[in-house]
């Protein structure tokens, strides 16, 4: 449900030996020889133009100038369950973003300028998710894009259909939440249908938490999201007197859970499959000065490991403050114990968790709560076979890291489904700074298609977006 936005960009200076007069539509040529932290060449190119030397933490001026050209606008519609900003509204507001703040900004509105107007200062050049969510929501208003956003919508089906004219288009069906016209402010769901020439999948991958697939994983004390930990803390179900919390996983969400429980003085067991020194661990890839809180978790993981053959210390009986004489076995981080190279073998109804190391030796832990934070999968239930035919490996579930959607790297169009595009985590991009290159590739390809249709005087090109059943509310 997208088209070419009413924006264009030109370069102020020669950059990467690109002539100012060379069209940005020739993306494949422009991407030759460009290297960066993304596997998608257009994302690397556009990131280099927007954030010169961004990887070095330098806030250099971009050689791009953004100019609003309303006459180039193409009707487009953004369907989403929540307000503009998506998943950022659901994230815990006091954390800090992994990316630097200027990596999070969108063209035409400097994030630092916006925050200065709000009389806020960036902490360590990073912002909170709440600030980012507010910025993105304000961006939509500032750029007069509200009419293109249909919030409170749930897409239930996306399929190809043929019109009477003979052209093939996408039919998108779903439900939109609205306030009832009756008394009581009741919320109702109204069905809708949208017909569009092109569809962009930009759902992210946070909808369905990944599971271990072990016995007892459905027990009430086993949770699969950070927000369940937050709810337990807020309600008072979890405090410093509770049995230890088990955190499973070695990503940033797992680290956030460790920090939250540790700040509450609740004992923490931390289990993960990799060794602490594994270069693939995210902690071994983050600069210490920029991410002190995650460096702290990495230190905890490294310095306070359970050693094979030793009896597991009951953290519930361990002092939560370091002893002056150093007699505590864990003087640096009391109330924490890590289990590297361990996986969960089973959860038991009595609140016990069975861990197993790489040699098959088992350890049984008594816990009050287990948090399985090992990633998530996208919800593409509105596509045939949940979108599997579109993946690199159509036999496996779609995964951001292991099995993303198979797209043309210069167009982001699905190889197996023309007219359907994907961007973001669905194609392996987890950072906002690289999402913008995907959007550029998509609108460039759609613009090129529209230009060819105009040249061919195709009568079907008049169809961009058509609504039936209801008028979607912005």
Automatic annotation (TrEMBL):
GO terms for biological process: cell differentiation; negative regulation of cell growth. Keywords: Differentiation, FAD, Flavoprotein, Growth regulation, Monooxygenase, NADP, Oxidoreductase, Phosphoprotein, Signal. Its main location: other. The keyword Membrane does not apply. GO terms for molecular function: growth factor activity; monooxygenase activity. Residues 1-36 form the signal peptide. The keyword Cell wall biogenesis/degradation does not apply. One of its GO terms (cellular component) is midbody. It is found in: Midbody. Its cofactor is NADPH. It comes from the Eukaryota. InterPro entries: FAD/NAD-bd_sf, OSGIN1/2. Monooxygenase catalytic activity. Involved in regulation of cytokinesis; promotes RHOA activity, probably acting locally at the midbody in late cytokinesis. Monooxygenase activity is involved in stabilizing transient structures between daughter cells, termed intercellular bridges, before abscission. Regulates differentiation and proliferation through the regulation of cell death. Belongs to the OKL38 family. This is Oxidative stress-induced growth inhibitor 1. The lineage of its organism: Eukaryota, Metazoa, Chordata, Craniata, Vertebrata.
């Amino acid at each position: 449900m997208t088209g070419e936005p009413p924006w264009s960009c030109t370069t102020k200076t020669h950059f990467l030996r690109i002539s100012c007069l060379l069209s940005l539509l020739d993306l494949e040529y422009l991407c030759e020889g460009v290297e960066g932290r993304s596997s998608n060449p257009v994302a690397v190119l556009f990131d280099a133009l927007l954030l010169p030397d961004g990887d070095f933490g330098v806030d250099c001026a971009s050689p791009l100038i953004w100019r609003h050209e309303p006459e180039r606008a193409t009707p487009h519609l953004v369907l989403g369950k929540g307000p503009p900003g998506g998943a950022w509204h659901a994230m815990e507001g006091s954390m800090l973003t992994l990316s630097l703040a200027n990596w999070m900004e969108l063209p035409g509105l400097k994030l630092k300028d916006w925050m200065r107007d709000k009389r806020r200062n960036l902490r360590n050049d990073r912002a909170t998710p709440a600030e980012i969510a507010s910025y993105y929501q304000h961006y939509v208003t500032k750029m007069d894009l509200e009419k293109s956003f249909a919030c409170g919508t749930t897409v239930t089906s996306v399929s190809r259909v043929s019109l009477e004219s003979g052209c093939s288009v996408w039919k998108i069906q779903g439900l939109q939440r609205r306030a009832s016209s009756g008394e009581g402010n009741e919320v109702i769901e109204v069905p809708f249908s949208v017909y569009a020439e092109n569809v962009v999948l930009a759902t992210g991958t946070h909808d369905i938490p990944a599971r271990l697939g072990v016995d007892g994983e459905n027990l009430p004390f086993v949770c699969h999201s950070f927000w369940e930990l937050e709810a337990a803390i807020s309600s008072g179900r979890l405090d410093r007197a509770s049995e230890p919390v088990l955190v499973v996983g070695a990503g940033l969400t797992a680290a956030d859970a460790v920090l939250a429980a540790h700040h509450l003085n609740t004992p923490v067991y931390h289990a993960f499959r990799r060794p602490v020194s594994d270069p693939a661990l995210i902690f071994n890839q983050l600069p210490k000065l920029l991410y002190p809180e995650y460096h702290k978790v990495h230190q905890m993981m490294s310095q306070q490991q359970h050693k094979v053959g030793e009896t597991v210390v009951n953290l519930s009986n361990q002092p939560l403050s370091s002893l002056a004489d150093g007699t505590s076995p864990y003087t640096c981080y009391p109330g924490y114990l890590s289990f590297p190279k361990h996986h969960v073998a089973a959860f038991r109804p009595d609140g016990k968790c069975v861990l197993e190391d790489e040699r098959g030796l088992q350890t049984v832990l008594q816990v009050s709560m287990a948090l399985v934070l090992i990633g998530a999968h996208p919800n593409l239930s509105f596509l045939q076979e949940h979108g599997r035919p579109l993946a690199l490996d159509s036999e496996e579930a779609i995964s951001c890291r292991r099995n993303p959607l198979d797209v043309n790297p210069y167009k982001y169009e699905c190889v197996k489904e023309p007219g359907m595009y994907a961007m973001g985590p669905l194609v392996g991009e987890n950072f906002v700074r690289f999402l913008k290159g995907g959007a550029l590739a998509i609108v460039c390809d759609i613009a090129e298609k529209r230009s060819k249709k105009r040249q061919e005087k195709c009568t079907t090109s008049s169809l961009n977006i058509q609504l039936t059943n209801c008028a979607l509310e912005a």
